[in-house]
Amino acid sequence: GAVVSQHPSWVICKSGTSVKIECRSLDFQATTMFWYRQFPKQSLMLMATSNEGSKATYEQGVEKDKFLINHASLTLSTLTVTSAHPEDSSFYICSAPVESPYNEQFFGPGTRLTVL
Amino acid sequence: GENVEQHPSTLSVQEGDSAVIKCTYSDSASNYFPWYKQELGKRPQLIIDIRSNVGEKKDQRIAVTLNKTAKHFSLHITETQPEDSAVYFCAASRWGNKLVFGAGTILRVKS
User: Fold this and answer.
1) Is the peptide bond prior to A101 cis by the omega test (within 30 degrees of 0)?
2) Does the distance separating the beta carbons of B42 and A110 come in below 8 Å?
3) Chain A contact for B100, CB < 8 A?
4) How far apart are CA B42 and CA A12, in angstroms?
5) pLDDT digit string, tens, across residues B3-26
6) Does A44 contact B41 at a Cβ distance shorter than 8 Å?
7) Chain B residues whose beta carbon lies within 8 Å of the beta carbon of residue A44
8) Is the peptide bond before A8 cis (omega within 30 degrees of 0)?
9) Which whole number is the average pLDDT over B34-50?
10) What pLDDT digit, counting tens, does each position of A18-71 carry?
């Protein structure tokens, strides 16, 4: 199957700082990538759809100025959590669909963010 | 938008028994229904999926059924083993579009 990587796998930061998370499709091109957030013992909640070469589409209730998404190439999308606070501590997972033939989505390994 | 409901939230079965998890969806345009297994701290792993043009799909001990009219789909695991213990999520989407996940089911297989 297709491979999606994420970096870093975990990060601890101080409140008020910004953190960048990278999502890469290693062996296929992805014009679209999805960013999810998962709090402990909860489901995956879609935050935004990252579109190569254009603006991301954010889900209702997700602050676009706080969660900056850049999809600068067909293999890389980045999520920057700006001015992070403890309530942003979560498991962030990206996914990318393989466009042929069935659009199956492949998930990255996730990034555990802890904001102190 | 799409809404996916999943039941039960927890399920305990004896090793060797069957487990069934059910999901309903709201968007009649959804046409792709994957099931994921997630272990603690890991990414979701696709275990089986079904498209709207079929009613049932089976892969060894795992099967999924889809009722488009009723807008519900179910995961069936037979001959459960301790290593099947995990959190299972259903999801629904239109092909290539965003996945909407159910709330998850914690499956415990007791040996």
Assistant:
1) yes
2) yes
3) yes
4) 18
5) 999 999 999 999 999 999 999 999
6) no
7) 44, 89, 99, 101
8) yes
9) 95
10) 999 999 999 999 999 999 999 999 999 999 999 998 999 999 999 999 999 999
Task: Look at residue A102 in the predicted model and tell me its pLDDT.
Answer: 61
Max distance between CA atoms of chain A, in angstroms, equals 44
Reference A60, options A51, A70, A47, A49; nearest CA is A47
Q: For B37-65, what is the mean pLDDT?
A: 94
**Six token digits for residue B95:** 């092909």
List, for residues B54-77, the tens digit of each pLDDT value: 899 999 999 999 999 999 999 999
Flag if B96 and A97 touch (Cβ within 8 Å): yes
Which of A43, A95, A110 lies closest to B89 in CB terms? A43
Q: Which tokens is A99 given?
A: 């466009």
> Which DSSP state fits B93?
B
- Cα A79 to Cα A65: distance, rounded to the nearest angstrom: 11
Task: Give the integer Cα–Cα distance in Å for B39 and A66.
Answer: 29
CA distance B98 to chain A (A): 7
Q: Determine contact, residues A23/A70, Cβ cutoff 8 Å.
A: no
- How many Å apart are CA B23 and CA B66, to the nearest integer? 10
A chain contacts of residue B104, beta-carbon cutoff 8 Å: 42-43
State which amino acid sits at residue B4: V
Nearest-by-CA chain A residue for B43: A109
Residue B109 has which token pair?
A: 């297989």
Phi/psi for A103 (5° steps) reads 60, 30
